[in-house]
Amino acid sequence: MTKISSLCVFCGSKMGDDPAHQAAARRLGEQMAERGITLVFGGGRIGLMGVVADAVLAGGGRAIGVIPEFLKDLEVGNDDVTEQIVTASMHERKTRMFELSDGFVVLPGGLGTLDETLEIITWKQLQIHAKPVVIVNTLGYWSAFEALVRQTVEGGFAHPAVAELYTVVDRPEDVFPALEAQPEPKIEVLTSHL
């Protein structure tokens, strides 16, 4: 696997109701700064994405915020980032985040986080990339997602190897070993559909 020098973090623009989500986001950001890994994120100063970015920057790390113009106009953009990229659309935003990243980490979030997570895993299934994807299951937040993926396999809509397209961990401390250990995607996750 390629050395990880930048990680895209998908997470909520809200904090969530339990302080454990904020603590996990902060800890992930601290670890990224300690390891010299650049953060690529949605560019917001609010919610968990703001917490991760603040922790990276406070630790002396780099944070690249990628935000569509309409959200920047709503004044939710983080102007304290190392670099801010303003895009014309959400699609362009996701493409830039993908291009700038060596891997992906997912924290809890809302519909946007669900969208980003499913898309990046689907791109891996389609062999568009082989970058590692790690989901941090703080307080069991992603357990329903895991159950849904199992249901797609059990229902005959996906090859069992789709479960290897990502790794689920319980704590931010487990992210980096999981990134290193993630296997290459099997061709069967694509060809079994053909």
Question: What would your notes on this structure say?
Answer:
This protein has 194 residues and is α/β, with parallel strands linked by helices. It has a single domain, classed as Rossmann fold, CATH 3.40.50.450. 42% of the residues lie in helices and 16% in strands. Strands 4-3-2-1-5-6-7 form a 7-stranded parallel beta sheet, sandwiched between helices. Helix 1 links the parallel strand 1 (6-10) and strand 2. The longest helix has 17 residues, at 19-35. The radius of gyration is 16 Å and the shape is globular. The mean pLDDT is 95.
Key traits:
194 residues; 8 helices; single chain; alpha/beta; Rossmann fold; globular
In short:
With 194 residues, this protein is an alpha/beta fold.
Write the layout of secondary structure elements.
Elements (H helix, E strand, L loop, with lengths): L5 E5 L8 H17 L2 E4 L5 H12 L4 E6 H5 L9 E5 L2 H10 L3 E4 L4 H15 L7 E4 L6 H12 L12 E3 L5 H7 L6 H4 L3
Helix pairs in contact: 1-2
Which range does the strand content fall in?
Answer: 15-25%
CATH secondary-structure class: Alpha Beta
Q: Please report the total strand number as a whole number.
A: 7
Give the domain tally: 1
Class by SSE composition: alpha/beta
Report the CATH architecture.
3-Layer(aba) Sandwich
Radius of gyration: 16 Å
In the sheet with the most strands, the strands line up as 4-3-2-1-5-6-7
Mean pLDDT rating: 95
Distance between the termini: 27 Å
Shape: globular
Task: State the CATH topology.
Answer: Rossmann fold
Q: Profile the largest sheet.
A: 7 strands, parallel
Topology as a string of helices (H) and strands (E): EHEHEHEHEHEHEHH
Q: Uncertain segments of ≥5 residues (pLDDT<50)?
A: none
